[in-house]
Amino acid sequence: MNTLRHVARPLITTAVLIFVWWAFTRISQVPAYLLPGPSSVAEALWHQRTLLMWNTLTTFNEVALGLLIGTLLGAACGMVIVFSPLMQRWLMPILLLSQAVPIFALAPLLVLWFGFGITSKVIVAVLVIFFPVTASFSDGLRRTDRGMLDLATTMNASKFSILHHVRLPAAMPAFGSGLRVAAAVAPIGAIFGEWVGSSSGLGYMMLNANARIETDVMFAALLVLAIMTILLWVVVDRGLKRLLYWVPDTTGAPI
Amino acid sequence: MADTHILPSPTPVGPAPPVRPAAGIVITDLALRYGTRSIFTGLNLDVAGGTFVVLLGTSGVGKSSLLKIVAGLAKPAAGRVTTSEGKSLSGHVAYMGQTDLLYPWASVIANVMIGSRLRGERPDSARARHLLARVGLADRAHALPAELSGGMRQRAAIARTLYEDRPIVLMDEPFSALDTFTRARIQDLAAELLQGRTVLMITHDPLEACRLGHHLVVMSGTPAQLGAPISLRGTTPRALDNAELLRTQGELMKLLTPQAPE
Description:
The structure holds two protein chains of two kinds. Chain A contains ten helices and no strands. Chain A is mostly helical. Chain A has one domain (37-243): MetI-like fold. In chain B, strands 3, 5, 6, 7, 8, 9 and 10 form a seven-stranded mixed β-sheet that branches. In chain B, strands 2-1-4 form a three-stranded antiparallel β-sheet, covered by helices on one side. The radius of gyration of chain B is 18 Å and the shape is globular. In chain B, 30% of the residues lie in helices and 22% in strands. Chain B has two domains: 1-92 and 166-256, P-loop containing nucleotide triphosphate hydrolases (Rossmann fold), CATH 3.40.50; 103-165. By secondary structure, chain B is α/β, with parallel strands linked by helices. In chain B, helix 4 packs across helix 5 (150-164), helix 5 (150-164) runs parallel beside helix 6 and helix 7 (206-212) crosses helix 8 (243-256). Chain B contains eight helices and ten strands. Classes of the chains: A mainly alpha, B alpha/beta. Chain A binds chain B through residues 145, 147-148, 150-158, 161-162, 165-166, 169-170, 172, 245-248, and chain B through 68, 71-73, 90-91, 93-95, 97-99, 101, 103-105, 114-115, 117-120, 144, 146, 164, 170.
């Protein structure tokens, strides 16, 4: 019953959206090069399937690599600024600067330096991803319950042991929040990198289709990108729920 | 010193005492200041090995700070705390805080053995199981703390304290979050299981103090001073209608209730 609801709800939502979209294109008579109907987008999806697949692979690699590197870098920065006041003073301005300079201004430079390949896109994605991870993880590390630390101290735990067995697990929920944000914004970084200059990827495909006014192909690429982003988020969310099995979810509980 | 109190060992009644008596606690000339405010100065207390001493006082008088210094969690402005053999207390104390302090990500049994894990030793799961059985949680070993009731969590915390097997146990209002009836049951359990260890417990509940303590010490004033110890006879836990308990409880209530403003 529950699984049925889980499957049925998104299907119904999608069906309704597609119907509204179809009805709108039918009634408004908007030309197809401005707003293609669902059927022509479906056709484009089918005809361009090989090309879409290859470009999706490129974008997926950029996003996945960006997420991996961004998360590791973010976690490392979070740890460093929490545990070394000296490093915090030196690192914090640089971290803030990396976020203060708009990514839109930085991306062309990165493409210029690192080329049309995957590297520049991964760097753009990392720049977008690491900061939410750093911010939330360092917050979590700072807020360990005093009593839990005291208890570990009376048990003669070493500093490293307290970090490993108390501070890190206690900071995991905050880290998870940062990672969820990162997973949702990761594709933005990669796609924007592709828009600025690239030789493959969904963003590249959209840009090309846009130039040729192949609006249906643009929509097809957009659709694939949206599905990829949602799937990525769901995977990260499920993984985090498994990792954070012990965090109570009170949303379903009666008040 | 005016407030030096040598507390006698308890009369050997009840279960046979352990072969080697537990180490006691010697607090000498202890002082604590926050900025310019003096919390206490020249505090002296001698807790004999194997006695259960209860420290009473109103909120904010400095009881928890005193216990934290004894536990090695805070530094005093002056003075020192040693075992009765004159050694450092580090490694000799187990600590129970105002909340159960169970790590929410670890199962009950993992929490009981957390000390081993934190010290990088091999956890002794047979002993942990045995202790969980003694506190009545044998069937909840693999539950998460969030799945237990408040009383059960406090029992798990007692099992964790016993697992540490330290001669000295420090308790900071460990049962204050429990309802009256659960608290009475946990007190019975604590009295039974902590028999033979040196216990310094803080509470603001006179009844709890009278049920568990061999000696009661009242902390009051600014800067805080320790009153003359009140000693109770007989085995612990004392029955709730024990005559001496009721009398002492009344006495404590009078001592601790602030006088009406003039």
